[in-house]
Amino acid sequence: MNADSATGFSSKPIDIASPVVEMARAKVNLALHVTGQRDDGYHTLDSLVVFPEYGDELRLTPADDMALHVSGPFASGLGSNTSANLAMKAAWLMAESVPGNRSARIELEKRLPIAAGIGGGSADAAATLRALGRLWDVHPSSHNLEKLALRLGADVPMCFTEKHSRVRGIGEQIETTPPFPKGAIVLVNPGVKLETPDVFKALAKKNNSPLPALPEKWTGIQNFANWLKGCRNDLQAPAQSMVPEIAEVISLLDTQWETLLARMSGSGPTCFALCATLSDAQAVAERIKEHRPGWWVQAACY
């Protein structure tokens, strides 16, 4: 194994390898409090995030040149300029940061909606970093990897770890929490794109209270849901003013008896229902699909 002290990465010579498959899980903000805005324009947050067992899928193989090929139900929403894709930017950044001249063919199956408030692009970038680490057998130090991920976007470090956690700062402060009780999520998107900067711009009050004190433990999923009801998503109101369908999504989710909590995720417009079990979440998802066949609906454990 070779070490490069300048980059902080260690590696082995590249071999012809089997394809590396990596899931880029959706990021769901169970609560999102906006606590301020820095001089550089970035907003500070206090949020609880989970990563359901559903997302985009990446398949990487060694190649002579770096290339990205996108397929899947939401591929057309990304456009043809692959150099602007966060997964491609992550690949180039990783290649520049490790010893040797390396490339890969990246096949991205885009299963998550675009500009949806569930971290799709950030998740793809993070999954690309993880997959290239396996494909090239490079092992960045955690410090160097955090810096690398943050260069791609504020959400990328948390998407890299894919750990249920509390996130503060602009997204780079990832903190361990008491274990979240096991449960399931229904994700619902009304088929409308919503750009994050526009939602933050419409937020009237930037300095809001942080999350309430976390308990030493949650005793179960109902206790967890009750605690979350004392929290907010400060971006929900401005997002709803731009996409009125968000109110309909939340109202419809709230009427399902299996729903323990309904709220918008991130900057929207995707909303979620927290459920006790996967079977409960699947039942809700089936009813929503029947009622609104044009919406994107997905149930998953977290």
TrEMBL record:
<dbReference type="Pfam" id="PF00288">
    <property type="entry name" value="GHMP_kinases_N"/>
</dbReference>
<keyword id="KW-0067">ATP-binding</keyword>
<comment type="function">
    <text>Catalyzes the phosphorylation of the position 2 hydroxy group of 4-diphosphocytidyl-2C-methyl-D-erythritol.</text>
</comment>
<dbReference type="GO" id="GO:0019288">
    <property type="term" value="P:isopentenyl diphosphate biosynthetic process, methylerythritol 4-phosphate pathway"/>
</dbReference>
<keyword id="KW-0808">Transferase</keyword>
<dbReference type="GO" id="GO:0005524">
    <property type="term" value="F:ATP binding"/>
</dbReference>
<dbReference type="GO" id="GO:0050515">
    <property type="term" value="F:4-(cytidine 5'-diphospho)-2-C-methyl-D-erythritol kinase activity"/>
</dbReference>
<dbReference type="InterPro" id="IPR006204">
    <property type="entry name" value="GHMP_kinase_N_dom"/>
</dbReference>
<keyword id="KW-0418">Kinase</keyword>
<protein>
    <recommendedName>
        <fullName>4-diphosphocytidyl-2-C-methyl-D-erythritol kinase</fullName>
        <ecNumber>2.7.1.148</ecNumber>
    </recommendedName>
</protein>
<comment type="similarity">
    <text>Belongs to the GHMP kinase family. IspE subfamily.</text>
</comment>
<feature type="domain" description="GHMP kinase C-terminal">
    <location>
        <begin position="228"/>
        <end position="291"/>
    </location>
</feature>
<feature type="active site">
    <location>
        <position position="27"/>
    </location>
</feature>
<dbReference type="InterPro" id="IPR036554">
    <property type="entry name" value="GHMP_kinase_C_sf"/>
</dbReference>
<dbReference type="InterPro" id="IPR013750">
    <property type="entry name" value="GHMP_kinase_C_dom"/>
</dbReference>
<keyword id="KW-0414">Isoprene biosynthesis</keyword>
<dbReference type="InterPro" id="IPR014721">
    <property type="entry name" value="Ribsml_uS5_D2-typ_fold_subgr"/>
</dbReference>
<dbReference type="InterPro" id="IPR004424">
    <property type="entry name" value="IspE"/>
</dbReference>
<feature type="domain" description="GHMP kinase N-terminal">
    <location>
        <begin position="85"/>
        <end position="160"/>
    </location>
</feature>
<dbReference type="Pfam" id="PF08544">
    <property type="entry name" value="GHMP_kinases_C"/>
</dbReference>
<feature type="active site">
    <location>
        <position position="155"/>
    </location>
</feature>
<feature type="binding site">
    <location>
        <begin position="113"/>
        <end position="123"/>
    </location>
    <ligand>
        <name>ATP</name>
    </ligand>
</feature>
<comment type="pathway">
    <text>Isoprenoid biosynthesis; isopentenyl diphosphate biosynthesis via DXP pathway; isopentenyl diphosphate from 1-deoxy-D-xylulose 5-phosphate: step 3/6.</text>
</comment>
<dbReference type="InterPro" id="IPR020568">
    <property type="entry name" value="Ribosomal_Su5_D2-typ_SF"/>
</dbReference>
<dbReference type="GO" id="GO:0016114">
    <property type="term" value="P:terpenoid biosynthetic process"/>
</dbReference>
<keyword id="KW-0547">Nucleotide-binding</keyword>
